[in-house]
Write a structure and sequence with these properties.
The structure holds two protein chains of two kinds.
Chain A: H1 2-23, E1 35-40, H2 60-65, E2 73-75, E3 81-83, E4 86-93, E5 96-101, H3 115-128, H4 132-136, E6 138-144, E7 147-152, H5 159-163, E8 188-193, E9 197-202, E10 216-221, H6 225-233, E11 239-241, H7 245-252, E12 259-273, H8 283-291, H9 295-302, E13 307-309, H10 332-341, E14 354-355, E15 358-359, E16 361-366, H11 372-386, E17 390-395, H12 399-405, E18 410-416, H13 424-431, H14 445-455, H15 460-477, E19 480-492, E20 496-497, E21 514-515
Helix pairs in contact in A: 8-10, 13-14, 14-15
Chain B: H1 9-23, H2 25-28, H3 60-96, H4 98-113, H5 116-127, H6 131-158, H7 161-168, H8 173-209, H9 221-228, H10 237-264, H11 266-273
Helix pairs in contact in B: 1-3, 1-10, 3-4, 3-6, 3-8, 3-10, 4-6, 5-6, 6-8, 8-9, 8-10, 9-10
The chains are: A alpha+beta, B mainly alpha.
């Protein structure tokens, strides 16, 4: 009897342990119409966006994405600027801009957003942030009751675009930061922030016309694609972002159970040719490789249609994007003849072209944290084999070591080319001579001259014209090849409204969000 | 064949088949395991592609067969390296003793103190992935076990009367080691190695599964499972086929190891006599 009792207790404890472990901690019930649980792969330590203080690293992305903070201007669907906290602006001269603020904007603590608060925030930003001072080049800021005047050390035509970067979220610096929580002006305010989760509650003082409709919003970081898929399938989440492409079809085939919001973004999958590699100094070789990338099948088959084949660095929805430039088409025969023109022929019958007794063998460096990159690498490898080039793929998340040591011939990466709706960021960071991310050591005097012009030109149209010329020059030189632009997808339950993917990849949780 | 070795036969046959497939893999694959055909991607198992195709349209059966060569060769080479190197170190320590013994054994203590897989993940990550780097990471952490075993065995062998006899006959140290010591410790080391094959296959495949082993497009079972991980619901054959190959291979080698141990266990031999 005693033994039976012991066994019963042991079985009960065991079951509780097992089933307790299976259940996990539920922050709130997703069935509750006033709460929203959002699973994402885009929040976490690896992305340097943990927290809510926009003045640190890439944390501003979380502040802006999850509706905690707002910027002076924001991007519309065409990536054009619109006033947000700001009412309008006046360009006083090439170095000075005056930004007028809306009168009714308040922080979530009820304090009004006035000129002094914005000045304090921008002062704190340029004091603490690593990228902002280099972008904004602010000399001084003065404030009035409802305006700030920014004087720059040099011409910064894209100043308003840079101020719309997530690091430009306006926060109450006087209120400070406590437990990684700052006070913003967004429809929601953070109440608990950890490395894996952000808990938000409605901002009762929200100034906007549309008031937030959810009482609670939980942002859960789920970095594993399969876990994310299953969490959405079993109803733990109301919406997800970052599903593996192979999982996405599980949701698209059930339109009654799930809704999907998609948009093209300016995130590009590109590969830079290392100009230090003697073989790649030959335009014909670079052109042959560019011609061997089957972008159509890469986007349609390997990305399951979640991308658009790229021409240049910018997507077609931008005025300086793919519709304005041209590049070589996929053509393996033409690629082979280009190699032959440069003296690369398969003389020993081993399947690889050779010259002076040496096979054309290249090292392709990439990383795995972006699921599309290894797919592109393997696809490129197979196609280059068809034209006789041996590609040795090194897909490692320790890629920075290899970049530093120069042990690569081609470096492939994913990057948002127009995060501020302006093209200059991409050219200054990846293309011009000496740029931090110019992994191919590309050096074109024409690009340098055009960049100088771009840097001193005001006006969207004129800047677009120059950007198109620069993109075309890169494509004519085959300095890089551009494979695909990312199509971002949000999957959600059918009762979720007001949750749509935005081309900027910034605005996710908005006041319009509701569950019906 | 002696009655004592008969239980080994079925497992030796199965192991032989696996090794045969691995050695002659390039001649056994129905299709080129590296040939991409994106238009035929993710086809379910059918009469043309018995185990279906992967996301690149490559024949899964051909890749599983080719993967046996990569996985088995890498695992067996790694095992050979660590068992020979570790046993030699252990034999030298046990035979020579003194400062060399203290130094090398403390070194082995340091390596034994690390959790093996975590160390291998860290080392392979730093080295930048690749099957060679993954095997090197496992080799660095794997040798002390063999050094410890062989050192203990050598200490026992060293006190045997035949060792004194050989010494009195004027046999040199090196000759003593390879003629009298190593042959006498080979049996237990062999049993340990046989029992380790399965573990090593799992560890190498594990590193590849984590993206730290074989690089694309190498057909390797762990890497193939990693590639098919996100398709477990939509195209399960991509992950299940290499998974089943790992399961079967590890099971065969583990059973073979168990049987070798049983056969070579002196207690079992005595039971047979009485």
């Amino acid at each position: 009897m005693r033994r039976k009792k012991f066994l019963a207790i042991a079985a009960a404890v065991l079951s509780m342990t097992i089933f307790g472990g299976c259940g996990g901690e539920k922050a709130q019930s997703p069935d509750d119409k006033k709460s929203f649980v959002y699973g994402t792969m885009a929040y976490g330590v690896a992305m340097e966006n943990v927290g809510t203080n926009p003045h640190e690293s890439y944390v501003g992305w979380s502040t802006l994405r999850y509706g905690i903070g707002e910027t002076l201007f924001k991007f519309n669907e065409k990536m054009e600027l619109e006033p947000w906290i700001a009412k309008d602006f006046e360009q006083i001269d090439d170095y000075t801009i005056k930004i007028n603020l809306k009168e009714n904007v308040v922080f979530s603590n009820g304090k009004q957003v006035d000129g002094a608060a914005v000045k304090a925030c921008l002062d704190d930003l340029i004091e603490k942030h690593d990228r902002a001072p280099k972008d904004l080049k602010i000399d001084s800021i003065t404030s009035d009751s409802l305006s700030v005047t920014i004087h720059s050390t040099e011409k910064v035509p894209a100043l308003l675009n840079y101020l719309s970067d997530p690091y430009g979220c306006i926060i109450d610096t006087e209120a400070g930061e406590h437990d990684s929580i700052v006070v913003g002006t967004g429809p929601y305010k953070a109440v608990k922030v950890t490395d894996t989760q952000i808990d938000l509650v409605k901002n009762e003082n929200y100034w906007g016309e549309v008031k937030p409709k959810m009482d609670k919003v939980t942002i859960r970081s789920i970095p594993d694609g399969d876990t994310l898929t299953m969490a959405m399938q079993n109803g733990e989440l109301d919406a997800v972002q970052g599903l593996p492409y192979s999982s996405l079809q599980l949701f698209t085939k059930e339109p009654d159970k799930y809704k999907i919001s998609r948009t093209d973004t300016s995130r590009i999958y590109q590969a830079a040719f290392n100009y230090k590699t003697p073989e790649l100094q030959d335009l014909n070789v670079r052109k042959a490789i560019s011609m061997s990338i089957d972008k159509k099948n890469f986007t349609e088959v390997l990305l399951n249609g979640n991308g658009t084949p790229a021409v240049g660095p910018f997507p077609a929805n931008l005025s300086f994007g793919d519709n304005a430039v041209r590049t070589v088409d996929y053509n393996l025969d033409e690629a082979k003849s280009l190699l032959e023109k440069s003296g690369w022929k398969d003389t020993d019958g081993d399947g690889y072209v050779d010259k002076n007794g040496k096979n054309l063998e290249l090292r392709y460096l990439t990383y795995t944290s972006r699921q599309e990159l290894p797919l592109l690498a393997e696809s490129a490898q197979a196609n280059l084999k068809k034209i006789g080039i041996k590609l040795n793929v090194n897909a490692t998340d320790n890629y920075k070591t290899f970049l530093k040591s120069g042990d690569y011939d081609i470096f492939s990466k994913a990057i948002v080319t127009a995060p501020t709706g302006d093209p200059e960021y991409y050219f200054t960071s990846h293309i011009v001579k000496g740029a931090v991310d110019n992994a191919g050591f590309y050096d074109s005097p024409e690009i340098t001259e055009l960049e100088n012009r771009l840097h001193n030109t005001y006006g969207t149209e004129k800047r677009s014209e120059i950007a198109v010329k620069m993109s075309q020059k890169i494509l004519d030189d085959c300095a890089l090849f551009y494979a695909s632009h990312l199509r971002m997808s949000f999957v959600m339950k059918p009762n979720v409204e007001g949750f749509t993917a935005h081309p900027s990849d910034y605005y996710e949780i908005r006041p319009e969000l509701e569950k019906k | 064949m002696s009655k004592r070795y008969r239980p080994l036969i079925p497992f030796l046959i199965l192991t032989g088949i696996l090794i045969f497939v691995a050695v002659f893999a390039p001649f056994l694959t129905p299709y080129d395991p590296y040939l991409q055909d994106l238009e035929g991607a993710l086809a379910a198992p059918n009469s043309t592609n018995l185990l279906g195709t992967d996301r690149y349209g490559r024949d899964v059966l051909s890749r599983v067969i080719m993967g046996s060569q990569t996985t088995l060769c890498a695992s067996l080479l790694l095992l050979l390296t660590i068992s020979v190197f570790g046993s030699l170190i252990g034999a030298i320590c046990g035979y020579k003793g003194g400062k060399i013994d203290i130094f090398l054994m403390r070194m082995s203590d340091i390596f034994l103190a690390f959790p093996q897989m975590i160390f291998a993940v860290a080392a392979a990550g730093v080295l930048g992935g690749g099957l060679f780097n993954a095997a090197a990471a496992l080799a660095v952490i794997g040798w002390p076990k063999y050094a410890r075993i062989s050192r203990g065995l050598v200490l026992t062998v060293r006190s045997m009367p035949y060792m004194d006899a050989a010494k009195m006959a004027g046999t040199g140290s090196i000759e003593m080691l390879y003629r009298h010591v190593l042959p006498n410790i080979a049996g237990p080391v062999l049993v340990t190695a046989a029992l380790d094959i399965g573990t090593i296959i799992m560890e190498l495949a594990g590193l590849s599964f984590l993206g730290l082993g074989a690089m694309p497009p190498t057909a390797e079972w762990g890497a193939m499972m990693n590639n098919g991980r996100s398709m477990i619901q939509t195209a399960p054959w991509v992950i299940l086929s290499p998974g089943a190959a790992i399961f079967i291979t590890v099971a065969v080698f583990n059973l073979l190891g168990d049987k070798i141990r049983d056969v070579m266990d002196p207690k079992n031999q005595r039971r047979e006599v009485f």
